[in-house]
Design a protein that fits this description.
By secondary structure, the chain is mostly helical. It folds into two domains: 99 residues, no CATH class; 281 residues, ABC transporter involved in vitamin B12 uptake, BtuC (Orthogonal Bundle), CATH 1.10.3470. The protein contains 16 helices and five strands. It has a three-stranded mixed sheet. Strands 4-5 form a two-stranded antiparallel ribbon.
Length: 408
């Protein structure tokens, strides 16, 4: 058994959490749902039904499944913990959606597609941080890199008339910001938290000044957005096709990059060297790996990916640049990286979860549900704290992260 704080076994704590989840669902159902309530889920418009459920019966089933999972967890211990955690999380989210739509209808497929869109900058930011932190360099400058990229993408796209030129320029300028972070952190051994903070402050001030003084007065702040396009064949797959294969280009780039980053970091020689540098730089140096050069390259790669994330905000979502338009998403991306346990696939999963919470709070406002949207906006940070506490699986960073390396 793996202990948590105060010596409570994690397996027992999970069982109690599953039990609490089931009881809460039962109580909420008894207090707020009547036998007449129905929950209707539609496809991409309100007129195309997907499924209609009797609200009370569906909630009772989900509650009983959670209680059953609590019993299995108590009896089996660590053997089924991860699987049961995933299932109970699904039960609780499903119960919330069923309760939310009692007497109403919800475009479930539309919300899932919107979740992917909302997750795009978070996943790209997590991939950016992954390259840096797997090599041992803390990167809280993701926010500043993406903001700079968003500004550059608009300026370059307006001047050139090409959105792709805007994306390329965003990648290059974000890489320059990453190079500044790398030089401060690796060459001059500045505290990496301080270096990242300085870059974030620099990005906010510089982009605002350039926007007010140059970009907007010159009329070069409205290049428009990328047009969404369907991938032939794949977009025709029932239900799944429109969710995954009907997006604008930066979303597709995110999906492709997740696969590439996962393969490179965990199945290539370069990835092995990167992880070695982040875990034990002295040993890597002994085997002939140039530690600081590897860190420089990885931080620059992270900057390039952050530039794509910045281009998403301006060219993929809004069509113009607005001051501080990243709105803290770089820090949420860092939370997704931690929640995903410093892996590409974990970052994708965490980003999707956070994107789902973001899309759901918008739907709640449309439906007029009397729950403050701020509660859902807290979810990414609360879940990250829970992970760091080890309640739902401990997230262990690379051993040498944040430690400057000097060749002995």
């Amino acid at each position: 058994m793996s202990p948590t704080s105060k010596g409570i076994p994690r397996e027992r704590l999970l069982s109690l959490l599953f039990l609490a989840g089931g009881i809460i669902i039962l109580l909420v159902t008894a207090l707020t749902v009547t036998p007449a309530h129905r929950s209707a889920f539609t496809q991409f418009d309100a007129d195309t039904p997907l499924v209609t459920l009797p609200t009370r019966a569906a909630l009772y089933v989900l509650a009983l499944l959670s209680l059953f999972a609590a019993g299995v967890q108590w009896a089996k211990g660590d053997r089924w913990s991860d699987l049961l955690l995933g299932l109970v999380s699904l039960f609780i989210v499903s119960a919330f959606l069923v309760w939310l739509t009692r007497g109403r209808s919800l475009s479930l497929l539309g919300m899932l597609r919107e979740s992917i869109v909302r997750s795009t900058p978070l996943v790209l930011g997590a991939l950016s941080g992954l390259w840096c932190e797997r090599s041992g360099v803390i990167n809280i400058a993701i926010e500043g890199m993406m903001l700079t990229g968003a500004f550059t993408a608009v300026a370059a796209a307006s001047l050139s008339g090409s959105h792709w030129v805007g994306v390329g320029a965003a990648m290059l300028v974000s890489a320059l910001m990453a190079a500044l972070h790398a030089v401060l952190s690796i060459r001059y051994k500045v505290d990496q938290i301080i270096s990242g903070t300085v870059i974030n402050i620099l990005a906010v001030g510089a982009t605002r000044y350039l926007n007010v003084r140059l970009l907007t007065p010159s009329g070069h702040n409205a290049p428009g957005t990328f047009t969404a396009f369907a991938i032939p064949g794949l977009s025709k797959i029932p239900f799944i096709g429109p969710i995954f294969f009907l997006h604008q280009p930066t979303v597709y780039l995110m999906m492709v990059l997740v696969v590439i980053v996962h393969v490179v970091l965990f199945h290539t020689r370069w990835g092995l060297r990167t992880r070695a540098v982040g875990e034990h730089p002295q040993a890597a140096d002994t085997l002939g790996v140039h530690v600081n050069r590897t860190r420089y390259i990885n931080v620059l790669i992270g900057g390039l990916i952050a530039g794509i994330g910045g281009a998403y905000f301006s060219l993929g979502e809004v069509g113009r640049f607005e001051d501080a338009m990243t709105n803290g998403k770089g820090f949420v991306a860092l939370a997704a990286l931690i929640f995903g346990k410093w892996t590409a696939l974990g970052g994708l999963g965490a980003g999707m979860l956070f994107g789902f919470a973001d899309a759901l709070q918008d739907k709640m406002q449309i439906l007029g549900v009397g729950i403050p949207a701020e509660f859902l906006q807290m979810v990414p940070y609360v879940l990250t704290v829970i992970v760091l506490a080890g309640v739902i699986g401990r997230s262990i960073p690379p051993a040498a992260i944040g430690k400057p390396y000097e060749k002995q």
